[in-house]
Description:
Elements: H1 2-8, H2 11-19, E1 34-38, E2 44-47, E3 59-65, E4 68-69, E5 77-80, E6 83-86, E7 95-103, E8 106-120, E9 127-131, E10 136-145, E11 149-154, E12 157-158, E13 166-170, E14 174-179, E15 188-196, E16 199-210, H3 217-250, H4 254-270
Parallel strand pairs: 1-8, 9-16
Antiparallel strand pairs: 2-6, 3-4, 3-7, 5-6, 7-8, 8-10, 10-14, 11-12, 11-15, 13-14, 15-16
Amino acid sequence: xxxxxxxxxxxxxxxxxxxxxxxxxxxxxxxxxxxxxxxxxxxxxxxxxxxxxxxxxxxxxxxxxxxxxxxxxxxxxxxxxxxxxxxxxxxxxxxxxxxxxxxxxxxxxxxxxxxxxxxxxxxxxxxxxxxxxxxxxxxxxxxxxxxxxxxxxxxxxxxxxxxxxxxxxxxxxxxxxxxxxxxxxxxxxxxxxxxxxxxxxxxxxxxxxxxxxxxxxxxxxxxxxxxxxxxxxxxxxxxxxxxxxxxxxxxxxxxxxxxxxxxxxxxxxxx
Length: 271
């Protein structure tokens, strides 16, 4: 009766029966690749589970990155007990990791697509000041894999290409926002916003635009203070001199004046 049952099944069903309950990769292979998010600098692991292995058979696990086998002997990546471990990962560690399990003469595999979260480093400072007419360059240095999309905002409004003074350039490290001949209307909060398949990040800076004469204000203030001080000193000295003259005139006694007058008369008589 058992033989008749197998004969009545299609060949494909017979194959599935043979492997069912004999070997299971244990990570949902039928669902296709699994997307994993890796954070730079934090321990990251991938697990290749073997839930069921047939008796009297040998099983081995191999790991590949982007099609090249990983030996696991480096201090950066280790492999043990079917687990791949990356200590202090960097952005270059992103990619396709494949767990290949060899059981007797059959091979099974599962692929992990590993991405890194996007981030902006360093973040913008809180604010910056420029003089009207100067040029401004804001550099947004981004990290993350796959390469994140970058959008610039001015006061939460996407910056377009309708102003010839404003240019957005893609660079090897991210993106630059350049503004030539700053105007008063350029005073605003500028935001660099980035995103990819596994996350997003942003950084904002306040740009202040000062009047052209703003640089002279401290100097003009000093000149005004010196002018006021000199005026005060001049008025004070003039009043003090006048007061001393009046006091010296009133301090002379009548006898002193008579003696002085007699001396003048004697001088005239002798002449």
